[in-house]
Amino acid sequence: MADPIIVGISGGVDSSVTALLLQKQGYKVECVFMKNWEGNDDENCTAEEDYRDALAVCDHLGLPLRSVNFAREYWDNVFEYFIDEYKKGRTPNPDVLCNREVKFKAFLDFALELGAEKIATGHYSRIEKSNGQFKLLKGLDPGKDQSYFLYLLGQDALSKSMFPIGEIEKTNVRKLAQESGLINHAKKDSTGVCFIGEQKFFKDFLKKYIPAQPGIIETVDGQTCGEHDGLMYYTMGQRKGLGIGGGHGDKEAPWFVAEKDLEANTLFVAQGHDHPALYHDQLAADQLHWMGGAVPDNLDGITAKIRYRQTDQKCEIHNLSPDTCGVHFEQPQFAITPGQSIVFYHGDECLGGAIIKSRK
Description:
The protein is an alpha/beta fold. The chain folds into 3 domains: about 5-180, HUPs (Rossmann fold, 3-Layer(aba) Sandwich); about 210-275, SH3 type barrels, CATH 2.30.30.280; about 280-360, Beta Barrel (Elongation Factor Tu (Ef-tu), domain 3). It is about 25% helix and about 30% strand. The strands form 3 sheets. The chain has a 6-stranded antiparallel beta barrel with strand order 12-15-14-13-16-17. The protein has a 5-stranded parallel beta sheet with strand order 3-2-1-4-7, with helices on both faces. Helix 3 (about 70-85) runs antiparallel to helix 4. The longest helix is centred in the first third of the chain and has 20 residues, at about 95-115. It starts with a strand and ends with a strand.
């Protein structure tokens, strides 16, 4: 009998329909539920509920389900990095690292040891093989494309992975789930930090791991206008939760985080979404990764995203080295955020990306 495709099933509708589609296509399908966070005491940890949904789906489809715990791998390779970045005043994207270290490393290795031919996940992306190279393409649903979170994958992971719903729009995924009698067809999409889930009070969550270091808030013009709880709790472009009272600036215009001075422990803010202090047309990045294993032959006409679901932005790459690069954008970008990922594209193809180091 053929080797199985092992689906990473989360209890959500996307991974459930992934298993459904592969079963309909005649593959031998097995499922694995990953538990990678031990924070059951946290208010919004839904692992038990998610496992029950995954089990119900597998029972309905007649598919075997295993549960595996990668909490150690997640803590060592993702969460410690996540906390360390916040301590440095940066804003990390743990979902990107989680995909590389857990879903497409720990889980992939586990599945291969079980005898899997490939793994499959519910990501809205596509894989295409061309001239001996595996390419990652955007999902066909532009509102759900998740290639941004997968740019750290390499040729080995791509060659052993499948994304069946990458060819389908989300509305049709839910329709397929409902028509097939899956109980989670209307389940709300998960949000929040990968595997940790939604944290209603994210600042309080971070305080469990990072001591608060209060300081002053200044306008970019040098006027003191409030106090902050600690620079690690704020991100570039943040509007909510600044606590700037009346008497400062235009009462009608909102305030946004514009800069952090780590040495002085000062948070700088600017008023109005169009304030020039919030926009930059250049950045420097490191930890550069190309999906093909080397710099693409042609970087003309590339675009980039500096956040998920952003419209592709025209740019040029300069000062290119094996690990670093500079990027110049055709149009200034709002709230370029150190610690976040910049991901490069050529049309629908995801070329790779890097971690934003600075805004110059």
